[in-house]
Write a structure and sequence with these properties.
seven-stranded mixed beta sheet, Spore Coat Polysaccharide Biosynthesis Protein SpsA, Chain A
Length: 264
């Protein structure tokens, strides 16, 4: 059996953020998502100006105005880049964005040989969100704090946007997902991971849904430190017309189908 890659020493500083946001026909939400990311990058710059931040928008098979919205940010802010792909796959899109940021997949090594991450990988943090979501201003700052305290991955919480969402459905969702530290949930819209841990765990798999859960399980299997927090909550769309077949929107739709019967 191959030796497991071990977590890096506690306190290793972060000097680079690679933020990845996949989008498939998200013109309704993308502008707000990118503005929120810009504000989060500005907040990090105020406290740690030496940390480099790059945002990659992965435009996956977009036929609407998403590319034009991304292009406005790319033209105005050197921290933003756009990548056009035709994958129609959430896991593959996230992985493509990470590769575009210069973080490639690992090569296979002979069994029994310990994997050693590149020197820069332990100081690079990968922050993942979605195009229908708005990160809070402290999003990157909090991930930096967790990373430099020893976390190899951070699982943030999400809150469905009440705008346009059925109030009863939102109530039922909140009842099942209390906002708390050390929560058990995994959301691709609010997930950060150290590049060295990401590479050791094999990266995002090519899955249309649950690519985030699969990667987190691989991280845990390799004894990396995974922290869950509600201190950097992301606002995400409460739509039930899902982009991913078994993603967040699909879960909301299923939850809405199981309403309690009306009282007599």
């Amino acid at each position: 059996m191959a030796a497991l890659a071990l977590p890096l020493p506690r306190g290793l500083s972060i000097d680079r953020f690679a933020v990845v946001l996949p989008a498939h026909n998200e013109e309704e939400h993308l502008g707000r998502a990118l503005l929120a990311l810009q504000r989060a990058a500005d907040a990090l710059h105020r406290v740690r100006p030496e940390v480099d931040v790059r945002v990659t928008v992965v435009l996956d098979s977009c036929t609407d105005g998403s590319a034009g919205i991304a292009a406005q940010y790319v033209a105005a802010d050197r921290r933003f880049n756009a990548l056009e792909v035709s994958l129609r796959n959430a896991g593959a899109s996230r992985a493509a964005g990470i590769r575009a940021a210069g973080i490639g997949a690992t090569r296979r090594r002979p069994p029994g040989k310990r994997w050693t991450p590149p020197p820069w990988a332990g100081r690079t943090w990968l922050a993942n969100t979605d195009a229908d979501s708005q990160v809070p201003e402290n999003w990157l700052v909090r991930q930096l704090e967790f990373a430099e305290a020893g976390a190899d991955a951070v699982l943030g919480s999400v809150e469905p946007d009440p705008a346009g969402m059925d109030a009863e459905l939102r109530r039922r969702w909140l009842e099942r997902h209390p906002f708390e530290e050390d929560h058990p949930h995994i959301y691709g819209a609010n997930f950060g991971v150290r590049a060295s841990a990401y590479l050791a765990a094999g990266g995002f798999p090519k899955l249309a849904s649950h690519e985030d859960r699969t990667l987190v399980q691989s991280l845990r299997n390799r004894a990396f430190t995974v922290t869950a927090t509600d201190s950097m909550r992301v606002l995400t769309s409460g739509r039930i017309h899902a982009r991913a077949p078994h993603g967040f929107g699909a879960y909301l739709r299923t939850l809405g189908l199981h309403r309690a019967p009306a009282a007599d």
